[in-house]
Amino acid sequence: MTLRIAMIGHGFMGAAHSQGWRVAPRFFDLPEAVEMAVVVGRNADAVAAAAEKWGWAESATDWREVITREDIDIVDIVTPGDSHAEIAIAALEAGKHVLVEKPLANTVEEAEAMADAAARAAERGVRSMVGFTYRRVPAATLARDLVAAGRIGEIRQVRASYRQDWLRDAEGPMTWRLDKERAGSGALGDIGAHAIDLSEYITGLRLASVSGVVDTIVAERPLLADGVGLSGTASTERGIVTVDDVALVSGRYAAAEGAYAPLGSFEATRFATGRKNALRVEVSGSLGAVAFDLERLNELSFYDATLPANEQGFRTIYVTEHDHPYLAPWWPAGHMLGYEHGFSHQAVDLVTAIADGTQPEPSFADGLHVQRVLDAVERSSAAGSAWISTD
Amino acid sequence: MTLRIAMIGHGFMGAAHSQGWRVAPRFFDLPEAVEMAVVVGRNADAVAAAAEKWGWAESATDWREVITREDIDIVDIVTPGDSHAEIAIAALEAGKHVLVEKPLANTVEEAEAMADAAARAAERGVRSMVGFTYRRVPAATLARDLVAAGRIGEIRQVRASYRQDWLRDAEGPMTWRLDKERAGSGALGDIGAHAIDLSEYITGLRLASVSGVVDTIVAERPLLADGVGLSGTASTERGIVTVDDVALVSGRYAAAEGAYAPLGSFEATRFATGRKNALRVEVSGSLGAVAFDLERLNELSFYDATLPANEQGFRTIYVTEHDHPYLAPWWPAGHMLGYEHGFSHQAVDLVTAIADGTQPEPSFADGLHVQRVLDAVERSSAAGSAWISTD
Amino acid sequence: MTLRIAMIGHGFMGAAHSQGWRVAPRFFDLPEAVEMAVVVGRNADAVAAAAEKWGWAESATDWREVITREDIDIVDIVTPGDSHAEIAIAALEAGKHVLVEKPLANTVEEAEAMADAAARAAERGVRSMVGFTYRRVPAATLARDLVAAGRIGEIRQVRASYRQDWLRDAEGPMTWRLDKERAGSGALGDIGAHAIDLSEYITGLRLASVSGVVDTIVAERPLLADGVGLSGTASTERGIVTVDDVALVSGRYAAAEGAYAPLGSFEATRFATGRKNALRVEVSGSLGAVAFDLERLNELSFYDATLPANEQGFRTIYVTEHDHPYLAPWWPAGHMLGYEHGFSHQAVDLVTAIADGTQPEPSFADGLHVQRVLDAVERSSAAGSAWISTD
Amino acid sequence: MTLRIAMIGHGFMGAAHSQGWRVAPRFFDLPEAVEMAVVVGRNADAVAAAAEKWGWAESATDWREVITREDIDIVDIVTPGDSHAEIAIAALEAGKHVLVEKPLANTVEEAEAMADAAARAAERGVRSMVGFTYRRVPAATLARDLVAAGRIGEIRQVRASYRQDWLRDAEGPMTWRLDKERAGSGALGDIGAHAIDLSEYITGLRLASVSGVVDTIVAERPLLADGVGLSGTASTERGIVTVDDVALVSGRYAAAEGAYAPLGSFEATRFATGRKNALRVEVSGSLGAVAFDLERLNELSFYDATLPANEQGFRTIYVTEHDHPYLAPWWPAGHMLGYEHGFSHQAVDLVTAIADGTQPEPSFADGLHVQRVLDAVERSSAAGSAWISTD
């Protein structure tokens, strides 16, 4: 059988997903073939060009029509977050497997509706997955594997941060990402969501409550000459930034049975001068520690406190060996992977779950949980950093 | 003139201060000679041995007597924090210059009394200083100099953490450092104090309010066979740890005039497996960034965002050149300094201030401020992480 | 017009070239379209499977027939080195543009014949290129650009090494790579060739003479149970390793006009325990330095000695900005590329040169030069490390 | 008993040795007390000032007189290399224990005479030692310990380099270090000697033969206005540099019994722009590897190839634990040592050997061996890099 894919949206994430779908079957033995069938966008010319560029057989402008087509098996949603719920729920109801780029939605309410729809669909064998792709960077997966195998013992503390600096220049113009109506959230939702999800993935724990503060460092910026878009020339008028630039969060994970409930600290920022894409997670345990940094994504730092005391140290594991997660079909040891490979791994895992009839991870329920954490952070910030439950 | 020093106390910090006093005049041209005159301890035999080992001309057991001796000019206090106030105030009133190891005191009340005494003494030309020695690691000083010179522009964000792991083993026994009566505080006061002070030193800003949480990760530990001391054999009985193991803090600095009031995030922990003495401060500015790590204390990371975009990157400056702070009298470039050199620099700065008749830094008022921040953190933690002013 | 490609050979390098051809047109606006037309191998079933797996429209077993087909424009040769000359010369004579994976050939004589053929073909507008792909890792290209722009001044010294460790285990079996008949050379030709070429590319200089020593560290290894192949089960019999495991070389570059002729030092080894794919080049100049490491291929170290003395340090440039070489069509800043992306860049450059009617680099003459250096190293080693000219 | 020391010479090395003698007894329990009795120099005023500054009880101008004084037990020689032989031999004949800063001498002949004198003296219980101090950086000592314990298995390859950049500026003036008459050698003898010695110390192997090339990168430099001294103002006249700026060497170690005789590669340079004091040694073995870098002297990189394949990586050991070499009496874990601490460790080891009646290491015979290696390199360079035995 061949799984035929419709991708809704075709921005930066569309490019990444396309590359994932195109490359995965060349390196991995997929249990089902995949076909990049149709890409959907609002503007007919633009989406036709995207189809040509990214290698989709067809383009279309009406997603409602596409998601009900009999020849479509998977709907891959890479539109902005405010349209995720509507498309995903409709697709699930139409019986299509759904992959949604993170964040699952812009609001908890939407995310709840999506998770409900996913649960109902699952009963009919329809699969759904949210695209926290960094779980599938092999070094991050190895971190999870080491933790799950008990190599760092009981978890004592977690730190996760995602730092970028592309808003550093106060004269950089407003874009849709700085407009709460469109983007839903700022650094917190865009990149903080990754830090939260990855910390939970690696530790196997879930945040139970949070205390946080969000802030907008540069409150006014030049408007774009031609309205709030993705980029462009600055006008002389100024607009108000309505999303956060930075979020600082303390969180308490729910304890594993009988264990201490560890604290985590989180930072998401677009003002960390010099840090370009620094998603870092460090987990301290009773027997060791793991530390991951997306800016050196082929490496994992691992500390083994069970070794002789005078031989202990953080070890840089190049996660490129054939028995490392996802690595078997790629290059010889020492030949590095890049950002986009996670999207191929995501494609592999989704197709495998569909073929096996199992629930892929992260599920919509996982995405909903992250959304609740983000929401709790915003409410905590509004309440003077009071601790808020993520339930 | 020769400045004659009396050191009160002779533990680990006594060794460090002794080394500072011994070595400083060998490399620096001090404006006044110094003499290691007398070391004071409660146990006559132990303090006599310390005098012999660390090179003090005399030993004594009664600090009250020593601080009034006419031949003593400087009183250097390295006892546990609960005795700082009494000794320091008495010494200042006796007209002696005073150096107190951090923390200034165990409580805000004591610290206030000390700052008052220092202010009164200053009117009579008597100097006082608190030993936040890490300000005098040359790379940290260079960080401050770069910030002060505007090389990173307006400050947008600060992160400071001090991570150790010596409590990792849950079967490690109780020591006096885990007993609130004796130690005053745990990770927060012991090492968090350094992170707070260093962040303020480098940025030139002061924390105005904080929101924090402190926690004790391992709540019970074996008692020492012979009571709560510094170290020893574990007994079969267990005691309750009454200090914090970890503190997570968000803070808001008072803004420089007309500028944004930046957020800072702080962590102090004794459970960061694999991190031995990792005091790190990273400051993001509108034009650049600096990052310091005590585990690589001869290096400073500096990012200059005013360079051509395709040449930007964090730069590792080996802070060992003759025109770097404190470096001129030391070794040729590339020859590294260690932990203890900061104590020589501290000695140089104190003696220079005494000779010049100026106020050395950090002052008791600075020490009091840090104490107030620590106190605010504890009160915030008790109040569900509510924001507390540091005034 | 569409350029139709025939790839001869389909091992590991075939996978990499296929990925290069497949992905390049998705991200770059190629001046001509490309089509993966046919892959050629000796075994009909194996090559058919390769065509299916790597996405070639057809497969074939007779390269002679394929290279004369009218519908083929580019012949991409990824067979072992001993067949390069015959295929490449025939293809050039048939009027096809040719890309040959490095090394250009196994012997200087073959390489000379190829360079001659390439020169003749160039007169007819037929292009040829040798695949020293690491020139097209963006950080390596940036190193070249900085040197060419004079940012490190006059070149004083070069160090280049390529270290792997896959022969560490003395019981690892013989493969064809350890057989001189098949492989031509060991570490020297396989990976030392890259170190030499990359050093010349970055500096813009050419090695004029060399003094070297090559050695075989483990002289005997278990034979493969089923003959000398690529991998497999060890038998109880042992065979003699006939290629080098390690090469150490000193070289003298021809001076730039009026300048000092700098020395270079080189190492190629398969016994550098823990180094997986460590191709490193460091160039010291009168005004700065650059250092590249393939194990961190998204980074370039750059030292600018014209900055104020107390701000100098090696800078880690993440070579992921849109104005860095080859980066414009890829991901946002901070999103990393991997090993295979160099093959897409190679495809882009070859297609661009064909469309523009210019000579692509590195040329067969460049490949011949590297071959002469390798040959001179072997002759030097045989002659007690006497200096041998590379002419 | 107290060992009374006379130090001959008082330049940069005199400062380092003085610091070593002063500090050692404060931290280590020496088997004999030491006393900094007298420092000797040619200029009475200068040496008196040095005595005052570095803490020697007396100063003197006639070393011949001093070395025969009954109250002197140890003669510590830190003069330039051309006077080492005369002073050391006289001191040994006078029955004094002798410490000589490296290089042992400027010529093999002198070194041979010194080793002979040392052997004769040893029969009378008189001890001698050459100051390859970097052996006593704890991380380097730990590297040796790991190798000696078999943790990296059989040695396959060694790389050692010592890179500085203080001659980068071609207009930097001539000093005595660039004059062969005074300095004996350039980069090779000054710092290459350390690379050679440290590689032999860590591996426990000895270089049997070498092939090398030395070169002078900047052949003419401004003369100092007041003759060839240590530093000063440049005149308008130019002088000829008569020592090497760079040395590149391949060497073959004598094999351990039954083992492969590994190759080593060496570089010494004063033109490695950006490298300030980069003495690096990396040893590859059949079971692991160690790598040391003096620019991060508190760290050792260790690779253990016996661990599970997917957990292998270079490990950064902070060599600051109490059970690391030399560390017990110093600071708590994670508190760093500096350059000068090696001189204290050297003092401890010498005094311990004297007290125990054992031969301290490195011996004059070890120093002679290094001298022979340096001499063989120079002869090899003169002979077109022919291999020269170090016998």
TrEMBL record, chains A, B, C, D:
InterPro entries: Gfo/Idh/MocA-like_OxRdtase_N, Gfo/Idh/MocA_oxidrdct_glycsds, GFO_IDH_MocA-like_dom, NAD(P)-bd_dom_sf
Residues in Gfo/Idh/MocA-like oxidoreductase N-terminal domain copies: 3-122
Alphabetized Gene3D superfamilies for the sequence: Dihydrodipicolinate Reductase, domain 2, NAD(P)-binding Rossmann-like Domain
Keyword Oxidoreductase attached: yes
Domain GFO/IDH/MocA-like oxidoreductase: 143-290
Domain of life of the source: Bacteria
Keywords: NAD, Oxidoreductase
Stated name of the protein: Gfo/Idh/MocA family oxidoreductase
